[in-house]
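Friendly challenge for the regulars: who can give me the structure tokens for this chain first? No prize, just bragging rights.
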Amino acid sequence: MDILKRESISSLLQRTPVDWQKVLSDCISCFGCSTGTLHFLVANTDILKLQAQIGIPQFLLPKVSQIPIGKGMAGIAAERREPVEMCNLQTDTSGVARPAAKETKVEGSIAVPMMLDGNLYGTLGIAKPVPYNFTENERNELVKIGEEIAKHLA
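First reply, four minutes later:
Bragging rights claimed.
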């Protein structure tokens, strides 16, 4: 993980308004990824709304623009309130990833809930174009970034 990029993410969250696209871009870069999404929970609903994305094919945007909690990697991470990871989304048979997710062409992927004080604020997802298992340290850092984002949304 790139420490300078990690510090950049924290400093971006101090700006008003927050440039969510840049936050996601730096997060993707920090972990050596190529693709990512940032979904915010719509108040008083079970819907995650796309706030920023990088690398999602245009034809998939309608499918990822609103995700019900419990559906797909982001929705399941939100439902479980814990990270959901796949070493290779292309060969996964668990049913966690939606069939359209394979169209992203990514393999190693992770979605983490953005939590603060037990409350869900959204999800952060990043992915690599190769099979990859995120380390415990990387998962913990992503959870911390999610918490930092949630503090801004609270």
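The beta strands are 35-41, 47-54, 66-68, 84-86, 109-116, 119-127. The longest helix spans residues 136-153. Your move, everyone else.
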